[in-house]
């Protein structure tokens, strides 16, 4: 049974990217996976100090909510990141977490497949270019990992706008295929 970790980074209640994560989670559960969801809402995650002590220690010297999330990332077979698209990029809170997950670089991490689930008010095909570049840059540092898939919900702004959007079914099917 694969262990799937879904990390949501929207800070809004009933967000569209959270809805994508929920659909992906339902699909993964229906596909027989063990699924854990972690929201960055209300989490205390400080900026990386760039001290690189984590490369020797394999954990971060900063004691906050990033440490248990990074440990969950290390133990997951599959990680899905759900994010709103801000200024054609990943949400800042997700980028901060990815920076803080630097301790995983020199560790014996389990994850192989990474998924990106994103929502945006903008609906152009190029809207995902920045978020994909951002997540791919992180993945490229982990030689055993790959970007296994993306789902984009464009044209959704207010919470709940995603209802009935075809991306929900895409997220479900992608989760089920893990």
From TrEMBL:
Highest taxon of the lineage: Bacteria
Start and end residues of each NADPH-dependent FMN reductase-like domain: 3-112
Record-given protein name: Flavodoxin family protein
Pfam families with a match to the protein in the record: FMN_red
GO molecular function: oxidoreductase activity
Family annotation (InterPro entries): Flavoprotein-like_sf, FMN_Rdtase-like_dom, ISF_SsuE-like
Organism: Megasphaera stantonii
Keywords in alphabetical order: Flavoprotein, FMN
């Amino acid at each position: 049974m694969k262990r799937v970790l879904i990390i949501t980074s929207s800070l809004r209640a009933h967000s569209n990217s959270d809805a994508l994560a929920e659909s992906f989670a339902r699909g993964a559960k229906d596909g027989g996976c063990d699924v854990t969801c972690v929201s960055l809402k209300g989490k205390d995650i400080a900026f990386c100090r760039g001290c690189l002590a984590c490369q020797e220690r394999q954990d971060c010297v900063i004691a906050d909510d990033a440490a248990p999330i990074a440990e969950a990332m290390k133990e997951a077979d599959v990680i899905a990141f759900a994010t709103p698209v801000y200024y054609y990029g990943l949400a800042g809170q997700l980028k901060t977490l990815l920076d803080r997950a630097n301790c995983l670089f020199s560790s014996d991490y389990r994850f192989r497949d990474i998924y990106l689930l994103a929502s945006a008010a903008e609906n152009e095909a190029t809207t995902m270019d920045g978020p994909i570049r951002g997540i791919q840059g992180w993945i490229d540092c982990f030689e055993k990992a790959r970007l296994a898939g993306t789902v984009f919900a464009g044209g959704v702004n207010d919470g709940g706008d995603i209802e009935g959007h075809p991306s929900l079914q895409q997220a479900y099917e992608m989760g089920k295929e893990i």
